[in-house]
């Protein structure tokens, strides 16, 4: 190479020496070295071309990687411009490749050295350009990586206490998310109950990051649209928002982005049904889930939620803990604490309100005067502006404003009753209907049963109010209630409304009737539960439509002209008062539709002009001393509730009984049994012969002293055979004076109920009634050894079954010779004090039997040793709650000898297990081989021989609460102390 370079120098020197152009020595030297550099570079053409090809290959690789992102719609305009440059330079590299091949096709000749050198220079320069674009592409790639969506974007979330209701709700959602069968979960409850707090804590939970590749959070605004939701989702996915696309295209892009990912969508504040397929295409990914939070339960149903979680108000303990955390140190003062407790009570368990009020009271420090003033303002917030409360009121009022007119009126009516008061649903619907709040009730299609149809429509309104949490069901399903804050809001709304002024002072200890200025313009008055002994002589209330005076025990007389001006009155409730009679001015109540006189034990007389009440539909005289003859003129009644003694009080002959058959419009008839003697059978038969003539009956509640009376009704009543909507609550047999209490306390008011008391054997009419029965209760029955004696084929519609006493029963179901499923719709089975019960099921268990059973309760069965017979567990896929109490011979909950081939996922839905006072219990299951996939709570008390729990680090992963005794817990044997410590965090020990 050196000799070649020397020869080049010699040639150039020669060329310069003969040139006609005169040059300085410095210029000549510069030119010499410039030419030398060009030619020298030309000598390394192969090396330059090799480097260019390698760099171009690297550039193509990074361009391909970035273009992959283009298919995911994640690219900026600047990046697109870079890609265009890359594609242009790639074509230029291709041209250089062609030129290179042409040059290399010729042998080396000195005369071509200039072209050779120029090509080598072009290749070297192109290399620099390619390398520069590669470096720029590297930066672009890093930017794209940085623009990838965060798997979980942490959200600010209020801390929730361990074992609090909100914490338990999060844990329950987590358990649902782990269930492959559950795709969508609905979280619903009234404003301020903590739904958003639950969703935020769920989003931030460490398990969520492990379960899902990406979590998408969307808060749905009131003015939501598919475009807005797509925009929010695409921003979180960091998809390109600058390119125009329609709804379908955006859904495709979102779906394409998520199709390979396991994702969780969290939708907060959902107010109406959202078609998620239209929004995001919903890739067919079974591992991905949706959790939505809404004020409206119906929204959760409409969005096809597989499981619902109702977020209710906090318990007093949880509310206090939350308030303490918000207020901080001042609350520890012995002067402040009693006031703080009253403040928390006013917040009524609403986390949102506790949060806002807590912040307000935190500013008051330890100044007792400020705390007292704040409490007084809080109690009077409907008339005094209160910081914190007014903000929550705006949230709550939004729910109210979304209702239509008649639902608003029905909601406001609930404020007539005390806070947290349990209001009988049937009674409330009757008041709504009487007030005309169930619109179009008289214009329904079936004119035959207008009252029933109005009640059905009322149930729909009630359900709508429950759906948006403005009313809530009490623990007893037959009642609803309104919480304190919502009731105050309702009263404030009514006070601001023209034409619907309320005078509401229930249970306030009033001894005197309020002043005239308070009641003269009132449309509804509620003074129930006070200590009123007298009423005004004359109540001038032309606009009054409801008057509630019930449970004023000291009220023994109503002034003669008291009702004279109340011609618009529609509801009058006097039940539980001490009145002995009604004044003649009751005849002025020409619009009255509901009259409640029940539980007035001294009421013996009605005025003779009762016939003037031509609009009256509902009359309740249970627990009075009135007889049937005194109401005989009210033949247009649609609902009559009466005591059995009312038929017989004061009569000496059959003619004095009074005639039930005269009430030709009667749709609902309730006869409470307040007789314990069996001396009226002859008269009862006459009563029953009249009852069977009623052609419009849709509901009958009656106690039949013997099966023969029931047989008469079934054989002769036209409504039994023709009215498919006929409902009943029947009791056959005497049980002292407890019949009415049992019916009133039924948790299944809409079910057809049959109760057999102190009966014997089996009668064909029982089989016929059983076929239509939903809830069956058998008490102290003789002559049967198993429930199967009543004919399992007659129990296809049975949903609830209770067996009590019945000391000849040894097994509930005898499965011998059964080929088809049995009790396939039964949901609840309660067995209590069946002294000789040995087993629940005997013999083979056909597939499908007990397939819907969710609750099994066994109490005081001293001979019971075997709960789950061979093959029984496999038939219980829906069992959620198991309670075993005071069963002295139980040694194993799941007997090893009966379950030798038990599958590990047995009892897949069992959530709660309660074991109380089982002195011989040694084992729930022999080891930790079962998965317990849904078990969340166990309660164990007085089971001192139970030394091991069938749990380990790999099963019962959803267990969140263990209740028991400290001594029992400390005596348990553990193989893994670390696991014991883990479970101890779930314990509540006494």
Automatic annotation (TrEMBL):
Residues 835-957 form the Disease resistance protein At4g27190-like leucine-rich repeats domain. It holds the Pfam family LRR_RPS2. The keyword Nucleotide-binding applies. InterPro entries: Apaf_helical, At4g27190-like_LRR, LRR_dom_sf, NB-ARC, P-loop_NTPase, Plant_NBS-LRR. SUPFAM superfamilies: L domain-like (SSF52058), P-loop containing nucleoside triphosphate hydrolases (SSF52540). It comes from the Eukaryota. One of its GO terms (biological process) is defense response to other organism. One of its GO terms (molecular function) is ADP binding. Residues 170-329 form the NB-ARC domain. The keyword Translocase does not apply. Keywords: ATP-binding, Nucleotide-binding, Plant defense. Belongs to the disease resistance NB-LRR family. This is Uncharacterized protein. It comes from Vitis vinifera (Grape). The lineage of its organism: Eukaryota, Viridiplantae, Streptophyta, Embryophyta, Tracheophyta.
């Amino acid at each position: 190479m050196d000799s070649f370079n020397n020869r080049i120098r010699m040639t150039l020197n020669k060329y310069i020496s003969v040139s006609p152009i005169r040059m300085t020595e410095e210029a000549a030297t510069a030119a010499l070295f410039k030419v030398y550099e060009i030619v020298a570079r030309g000598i390394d053409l192969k090396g330059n071309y090799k480097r260019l090809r390698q760099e171009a290959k690297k550039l193509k690789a990074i361009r391909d990687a970035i273009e992959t992102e283009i298919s995911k719609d994640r690219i900026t305009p600047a990046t697109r411009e870079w890609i265009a440059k890359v594609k242009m330079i790639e074509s230029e590299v291709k041209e250089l490749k062609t030129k290179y091949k042409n040059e290399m096709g010729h042998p080396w000749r000195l005369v071509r050295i200039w072209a050779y050198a120029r090509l080598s220079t072009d290749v070297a320069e192109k290399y620099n350009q390619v390398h520069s674009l590669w470096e720029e592409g590297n930066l672009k790639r890093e930017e794209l990586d940085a623009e990838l969506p965060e798997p979980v974007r942490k959200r600010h979330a209020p801390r929730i206490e361990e074992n609090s209701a909100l914490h338990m709700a999060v844990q329950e959602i987590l358990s649902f998310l782990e269930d492959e069968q559950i795709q969508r979960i609905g979280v619903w409850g009234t404003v301020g109950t903590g739904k958003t707090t639950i969703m935020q804590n769920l989003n931030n939970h460490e398990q969520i990051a492990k379960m899902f590749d990406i979590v998408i959070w969307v808060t749905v605004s009131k003015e939501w649209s598919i475009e807005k939701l797509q925009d929010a989702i695409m921003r979180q996915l960091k998809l390109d928002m600058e390119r125009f696309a329609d709804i379908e295209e955006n859904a495709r892009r979102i779906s394409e982005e998520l199709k390979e990912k396991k994702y969780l969508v969290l939708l907060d504040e959902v107010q109406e049904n959202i078609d998620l397929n239209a929004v995001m295409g919903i890739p067919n990914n079974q591992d991905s889930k949706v959790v939505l939070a809404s004020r409206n339960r119906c929204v959760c149903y409409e969005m096809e939620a597989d499981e619902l979680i109702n977020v209710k108000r906090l318990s007093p303990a949880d509310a206090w803990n939350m308030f303490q955390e918000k207020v901080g140190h001042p609350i520890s003062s012995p002067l402040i604490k009693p006031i703080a407790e009253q403040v928390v009570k006013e917040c009524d368990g609403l986390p949102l309100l506790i949060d806002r009020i807590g912040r307000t009271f935190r500013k008051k420090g330890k100044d007792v005067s400020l705390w007292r003033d704040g409490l007084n303002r809080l109690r009077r917030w409907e008339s005094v502006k209160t910081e914190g409360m007014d903000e929550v009121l705006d949230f709550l009022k939004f729910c109210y404003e979304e209702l239509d007119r008649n639902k608003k009126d029905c909601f406001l009516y609930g404020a007539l009753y005390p806070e947290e008061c349990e209001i009988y649903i049937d009674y409330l619907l009757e008041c709504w209907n009487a007030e005309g709040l169930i619109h179009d009730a008289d214009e329904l299609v079936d004119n035959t049963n207008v009252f029933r149809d109005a009640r059905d429509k009322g149930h729909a309104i009630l359900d709508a109010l429950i759906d948006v949490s403005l009313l809530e069901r009490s623990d007893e399903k037959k009642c609803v209630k309104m919480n304190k804050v919502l009731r105050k809001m309702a009263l404030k709304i009514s006070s601001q409304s023209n034409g619907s002024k309320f005078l509401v002072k229930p249970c306030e200890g009033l001894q005197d009737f309020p002043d005239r200025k308070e009641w003269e313009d009132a449309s509804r008055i509620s003074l129930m539960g006070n200590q009123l002994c007298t009423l005004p002589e004359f109540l001038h209330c032309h606009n009054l439509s409801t008057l509630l005076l019930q449970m004023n025990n000291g009220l023994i007389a109503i002034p003669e002209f008291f009702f004279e001006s109340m011609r618009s009155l529609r509801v009058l409730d006097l039940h539980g008062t001490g009145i002995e009679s009604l004044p003649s001015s009751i005849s002025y109540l020409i619009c009255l539709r509901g009259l409640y006189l029940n539980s007035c034990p001294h009421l013996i007389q009605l005025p003779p002009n009762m016939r003037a009440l031509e609009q009256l539909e509902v009359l309740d005289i249970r627990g009075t001393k009135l007889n049937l003859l005194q109401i005989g003129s009210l033949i247009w009644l649609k609902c009559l509730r009466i005591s059995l003694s009312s038929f017989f009080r004061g009569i000496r002959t059959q003619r004095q009984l009074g005639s039930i058959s005269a009430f030709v419009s009667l749709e609902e008839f309730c006869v409470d049994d307040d007789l314990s003697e069996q001396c009226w059978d002859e008269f009862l038969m006459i009563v029953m012969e009249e009852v069977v003539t009623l052609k419009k009956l849709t509901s009958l509640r009656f106690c039949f002293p013997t099966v023969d009376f029931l047989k008469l009704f079934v054989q002769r009543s036209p409504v039994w055979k023709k009215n498919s909507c006929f409902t009943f609550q029947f009791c056959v047999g005497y049980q002292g004076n407890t019949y009415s209490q049992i019916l009133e306390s039924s948790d299944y008011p809409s079910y057809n109920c049959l109760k057999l008391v102190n009966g014997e054997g089996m009668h064909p009419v029982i089989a016929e009634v059983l076929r239509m029965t939903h809830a069956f209760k058998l008490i102290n029955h003789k002559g049967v050894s198993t429930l199967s004696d009543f004919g399992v084929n007659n129990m296809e519609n049975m949903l609830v079954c209770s067996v009590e006493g019945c000391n000849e029963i040894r097994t509930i179901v005898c499965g011998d010779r059964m080929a088809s499923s049995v009790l396939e719709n039964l949901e609840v089975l309660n067995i209590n004090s069946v002294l000789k019960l040995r087993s629940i099921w005997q013999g083979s268990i056909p597939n499908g039997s007990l397939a819907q059973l969710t609750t099994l309760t066994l109490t005081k069965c001293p001979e019971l040793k075997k709960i789950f017979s061979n093959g029984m567990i496999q038939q219980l896929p829906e069992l959620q709650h198991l309670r075993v109490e005071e069963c002295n011979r139980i040694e194993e909950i799941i007997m090893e000898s009966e379950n030798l081939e038990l599958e590990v996922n047995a009892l897949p839905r069992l959530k709660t297990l309660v074991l109380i006072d089982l002195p011989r219990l040694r084992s729930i299951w022999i080891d930790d081989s079962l998965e317990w996939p849904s078990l969340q709570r166990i309660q164990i008390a007085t089971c001192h021989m139970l030394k091991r729990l069938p749990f380990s680090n790999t099963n019962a992963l959803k267990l969140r609460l263990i209740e028991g005794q400290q001594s029992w817990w400390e005596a348990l044997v553990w193989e893994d102390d670390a696991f014991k410590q883990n479970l101890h965090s779930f314990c509540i020990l006494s």
